[in-house]
Every structure is written in structure tokens, then in C-alpha cells.
Amino acid sequence: MTYDPLAAFRMEGHAAIVTGGAQNIGAGIARAFAGAGARVMIADLDGAKAAATAAAIAAETGRDVRGMACDVTQEGDIQAVVAAAVAAFGGLSTLVNNVGWGGVNTDPLAVTEQQMLDSYRLNTISAYRMTAACVPHLLQAQNPAVINSGSFSSAVPAYDILAYATAKAALNQMMVSLAHALAKRVRVNSVLIGTVITEGYAAAGIDAATQERMMHPDTLTGRPGRPEDVAHAMLWLASPAGSWISGQTINVHGGGSVVRLFGH
């Protein structure tokens, strides 16, 4: 038999939930998982868009991909999407906590307490609650994994998105703690994502001129990220190829900033 190292990246027999999967990075993750053979439930605040994205991915990959509305800040919605995925797929092996959001604040000292709480609720608590709801099913699966969409802003000064970066930093700590709590049973990791240009930037209040500057980042790779860049890292962590990886933050950000001490 010919050895095929790529076989370890296949996801046949896996069933996944991807939150915030109707568009942008989340849709890229759902597409990669389905393309590798997994059945996927896309959970998104926009149920109609989730269903449309799921239908498009299913048509492209030939896999069972479904979409439904889910507000991850609401416990009832969380329980409903987990129950629907388990009923549809007969189990659950993978959770991607991809939902994340944060607006721009020009004055970091003017961020309100409510803005901090809202960011923590969406970016951190939702991932905890989704994970808790999925764990009973993950414990019955082969190669179960939880992967969080983190942010590079959680590891560097990011005062212009203070509430978001702070909540994502908390997500990093939570990931490590849950990886230890679930040791030898469920793998838990995070991907720290850099600048990936999507339609979400405009919705977050980032103007066109700033988006244009972001298209030319001073990174080791010299380009912003694409949804598939993140999706491929997620696939590695979720698949059997990543079965020896847990409790880790994987940086997917173009290599970070280029530091030039003596010019070019």
C-alpha cells in the first residue's frame, strides 16, 4: 500500500459545528471541513445566510452541510443548534468557536463598561457555553476537538480595539484551562488570526482608506490573510493530522511584523 500522508487530513466520519459560519472566515472553515469529508452544521445569527452558505458548500463538495440561526449569547439557541447537529449527524466530533466581533474605539479610555461586558459575552462566554454544551457528545467521538478563532490582537498592544482584544485574551486563557480540564479526552486549541480582509471590517466601522492600508501589511509574507489561510490551519487542528496537538495557540498572521533595524 502506498503511504499517503495527506490521508491524515481527511475528515470522513467527522461532524462539526462552525459558529459564525455564514460568511467570511467561518464560511471558509466550513468549506474546508466539508471538502475534507466532514458533515458540517453552520450556526449563524443570520439563519437565512447560514442556510444559503450551507447549500452552496453542499453543492460544491457533495457533503451534508446544514445551516441554522443561532445567537451564541443565548443558551436556548446554543442547546438547539447542538441538538440539531447531533440529530442530523448522529454525533459530534468537532466544534469551531468562530464567532467574534469588536468595534473600533478611537479613545481606549472612553470604552464603556457595557461595551466591555458585551464583548466578553460574545467573544469569550459564548465559546465557553458552546463548548460545555458540546462536550458530552465530543466525549463519545473519535478524535474530538474544540478550536477557537482567536485574534493576534490578544497578544500584542491593541488599544484601538481594546474591548475586543481584551475578550480574546481571556479566550486564550480559557482555552488552556479547558485543554487541561479535558486532557486525554478532548483536544482544545486556538488559532490567533491576523489581518484577514473581509466584509466584516466595513461593518466594524473601519473606513475604506484604512482597509486599503491593511491590504499592504508589513508582515513577513507581505500580504493580508485570506479565509482559506485560516481554514487550512483549522483543518490541520481538527483532523487526525493534529491528534497530538492540544492546549496550544497557533499563530496564523502572515508571520507578524517585519522589524527593520538598519533599513531594507
Topology readout:
Blueprint: E1 15-19, H1 24-35, E2 39-44, H2 47-61, E3 65-69, H3 75-89, E4 94-97, H4 113-138, E5 145-151, H5 162-181, E6 187-193, H6 200-203, H7 208-214, H8 227-238, E7 249-252
Parallel strand pairs: 1-2, 1-4, 2-3, 4-5, 5-6, 6-7
Helix pairs in contact: 1-2, 1-8, 3-4, 4-5
Keywords: Oxidoreductase
Pfam families: adh_short_C2
Protein name: SDR family oxidoreductase
Report on this model:
The structure is a single chain. The protein has helices at 24-35, 47-61, 75-89, 113-138, 162-181, 200-203, 208-214, 227-238, and strands at 15-19, 39-44, 65-69, 94-97, 145-151, 187-193, 249-252. The chain has 264 residues and is of the alpha/beta class. It has one domain: Rossmann fold (3-Layer(aba) Sandwich). It has a 7-stranded parallel beta sheet with strand order 3-2-1-4-5-6-7, sandwiched between helices. Helix 2 links the parallel strand 2 (39-44) and strand 3. Helix 1 packs parallel to helix 2 (47-61) and helix 4 packs parallel to helix 5. The longest helix is centred in the middle third of the chain and has 26 residues, at 113-138. This is SDR family oxidoreductase. Belongs to the short-chain dehydrogenases/reductases (SDR) family.
List keywords for this structure.
single chain, 8 helices, 42% helix, 14% strand, SDR_fam, seven-stranded parallel sheet, 264 residues, Rossmann fold, alpha/beta
